């Protein structure tokens, strides 16, 4: 249970109604709501002094704030979160809004990018806010992959897919990586990429890592059991096999060969772990057209709010999201069903395209 949910459940009916009326009044007008205004709208007839006491309690809880000494109250960030989570009454999608969205997306021709541009236009037009559309990443088989260093903390992965699609994604490489290590990672991946999607390629690398780890375990088992060696940080990223008194304890050529084999396998294991990390970062990296119809700086603006909903493909897998960015005093009751409906519609169109 979140803190806001707990606070809401502990409120009495009067406090809950005063809080709800303040938030609804603020969302509708943008102005602070005073006690005298509430005396005309509350279901229970109480004095302005009583309402002021309740509002002071809500302010003490961090749910309301008073912009000026003699003014009414407005909801705080915590108060808005609690209202949206526990008190927001979401109505049905307005028929006019539905028609506008349907009209914009009704023509399903063109590629996915064109369709998502229309989604962005529809959301912006209907809500008068900035729209956010997270596009699905391409899942065709990979033909070629290349990593390009852009600096010590920035790199680009270029993905060429078998269907001719080319995608560039920016990511932050693991610390200590060099252009040569990136080339080595790309060479390995290109050798095993044929016919595999990016996620399948990641699974193939993880399988290779598991096989190498099992080989090392098998070779090292006897050495460890005989007290000739021990693990440090076993299973971790910096694990090592420490050999005790190697010159005295390792008497046979076979044991020497095992140690050399373990060293070689360790080197290979570390390379594959680096490659797996590269691939994971590339899969999560920013595509060149993720945010459509809005700019990243909107997220850092004080007083902005985001209503977002994921959409799914035919396999019920979340592949993207649509949303609306606007001021804190969004008409949440209207925006939520618009975003929800648009996400469902996009998911259906994506599924129909296979």
UniProtKB/TrEMBL annotation:
GO BP annotations listed: negative regulation of DNA-templated transcription
Keyword hit for Repressor: yes
GO MF annotation list: DNA binding
Keywords carried by this UniProt record: Repressor, Stress response, Transcription, Transcription regulation
Gene3D superfamilies on file: 3.30.450.40, Heat-inducible transcription repressor hrca homolog, domain 3, Winged helix-like DNA-binding domain superfamily/Winged helix DNA-binding domain
InterPro entries: GAF-like_dom_sf, HrcA, HrcA_C, WH-like_DNA-bd_sf, WH_DNA-bd_sf, WHTH_transcript_rep_HrcA_IDD
Pfam families, alphabetized: HrcA (PF01628)
Domain Heat-inducible transcription repressor HrcA C-terminal: 115-336
Keyword Transcription: yes
Family annotation (PANTHER family): HEAT-INDUCIBLE TRANSCRIPTION REPRESSOR HRCA
Family: Belongs to the HrcA family.
Function: Negative regulator of class I heat shock genes (grpE-dnaK-dnaJ and groELS operons). Prevents heat-shock induction of these operons.
Protein's name according to its UniProt entry: Heat-inducible transcription repressor HrcA
Protein's organism: Shimia aestuarii
